[in-house]
Amino acid sequence: MRTLIISDLHLGSVTRSDLLRRAEIRAPLLATLEGVDRLVLLGDVLELRHGPLRDALAAARPFFEDVGRALAAGELIVSAGNHDHALVEPWLSGRGEELEPEPLQLEQLIEPAKASPAMQRIASWCSPARVSVAYPGLWLRPDVYACHGHYLDCHLTVPTLERLSVGAMWRLLGRSPDSFERVGDYESVGAPIFAWRDAISRDARTGSVLNGLATVTAWRALGGSGGAAAGRDGAVPEMAGPLALRRGAAGRRLRTRALVGAFPIAVAALNRAGIGPLRADISPGELRRAGLRAMGEVAARLDLGEAYVVFGHTHRAGPLPADDTEEWRGRAGARLVNAGSWTYSEIFVTSTPGESPYWPGTCVLIEDEGPPQLLRLLQERSQSELRPVLV
C-alpha cells in the first residue's frame, strides 16, 4: 500500500497563505496521487484560529472535491491538529456523556458523521473516495506512526503562543508535563484551550493577538535585532527576521530595541512563575532543535519506541540531506520525520526556490517497506509564483 502524507494546509487562512486553495498549486499534488492508495491529512487541515468554521470550509471545499476525484477508489484519512481541533471535538466531548469512556489510545478511527458535522460535510465533498478520521494519529505500518505533533508544545522550550497557553493551563490544573505518559494527559491541557479559542472565532474573525499575526510581528523584531543567523535552516523563520528593522522608522527601531531588551527578562519571569522551562534563544537552529527535542519527548512518553514518527506542526520539513540525523532521533530511539507545510510565509524562506526547509509543498511517501520518503513538490516554484494574492 502506498500512502501519501501532507500536513498543515491551514485552509481558510485570512492571509491567503494556504496554497492549496489555488488550483494551480493543487495540480502537482493531485498528479502525485496517481498510484497512491490513501492520502493522510495530518492536522491543521483547516485554519480555525482566524475565524468561523463556515469560512474555512468554503475555502477548503474545492480542494476536497479535487482530492476525492483524484483518489477515486482510494481512501482519505483526516486527523486534527491544534488549529482545527473542532473537527474531532464533538466526538471527544460525547465519549463520556453516558458512561465513563475508555482511555484514549494512540489511534482512534472514527466515522466522519460521528467525528463532527464539519467532517460529515467534508466526507460528502470527497466522493467517490472513502473518508475516515483518525485521532490523535494512526499506525500506517507496524513501524510508522503519524500524528500532527501538537502535543510537543507541552515540552517546547521556545515561548510560542501555544507553549505559553499550555503552560498556563497545566499550572491552573496542577498537572506537570513531567508526569505525562498517556494521550489523555496531553488532551487534558490542550483541549480546553482549543475549545476556548474555537468559541471566540465561531461567529467572527479574530484579532491579531489570537490569530497569531501579532506574535509574528513581535518575533520578527526580536530575531532581527538579535542577529539570528540563518544557517542550514535557510531564512530566519516566522519568529525571527530582519525585515522590521530594515523597514521601520526611528521610532519603530527604538521600540524594537526595548522589546529585545525586555525579552530575556520576560522569559525569566515566566520561568519563575512555573510556566517554563523556557529559553530566550530563538535562533533558527534552536527552533529546529527545540521542536525535535520536544517531539522526541512525546514519542518517549507515549512509548513509540524506535518507530518512524511522522509529524507536522512546526512547518520545518526534514530530515533533509544537510541535516544532522542524530538530531532527528528521539531520546528513546524514535526516528522523527516532519512533513513540513503547504503554507507560504515570506519570512520563512530565502529568495532561492526550495532552499529553505520551511519552503512549502512537502509530502511524505510511505510504502510497504523502507524509510519514509520526503517529496518536495513545489521546490522549483519561485516566490512570485507562491506569494499570496490578497483580494
Q: Look at the helices and sheets and give the structural class.
A: alpha/beta
Number of domains: 1
Radius of gyration, taken over Cα atoms and rounded to an integer in Å:
20 Å
Strand content: 5-15%
The total count of strands amounts to 10
State the separation between the terminal residues, measured CA to CA.
41 Å
SSE run: EHEHEHEHHEEHHHHHHHEEEEH
Overall pLDDT, averaged? 89
Mass-distribution shape: globular
Please mark out the parts with pLDDT under 50 across 5 or more consecutive residues, or reply none. 224-231, 236-247
* Main sheet: strands, sense, barrel: 10 strands, mixed
How many helices in DSSP terms? Answer: 13
Task: Spell out the blueprint of helices and strands.
Blueprint: E1 3-6, H1 23-32, E2 38-42, H2 53-71, E3 75-79, H3 89-94, E4 107-110, H4 112-115, H5 117-125, E5 130-141, E6 144-147, H6 161-173, H7 183-201, H8 208-211, H9 213-226, H10 243-247, H11 250-272, H12 284-301, E7 308-311, E8 335-338, E9 362-366, E10 373-376, H13 383-386
Parallel strand pairs: 1-2, 2-3, 3-5, 6-7, 7-8
Antiparallel strand pairs: 1-9, 4-5, 5-6, 9-10
Helix pairs in contact: 1-2, 2-5, 6-7, 9-11
Describe this entry's structure for a reader:
- The protein is an alpha/beta fold.
- It has one domain.
- It contains 13 helices and ten strands.
- Strands 1, 2, 3, 4, 5, 6, 7, 8, 9 and 10 form a ten-stranded mixed β-sheet that branches.
- Strand 1, helix 1 and strand 2 form a beta-alpha-beta unit.
- Helix 1 crosses helix 2, helix 2 runs parallel beside helix 5 and helix 9 crosses helix 11.
- The longest helix has 23 residues.
- About 5% of the residues have low confidence.
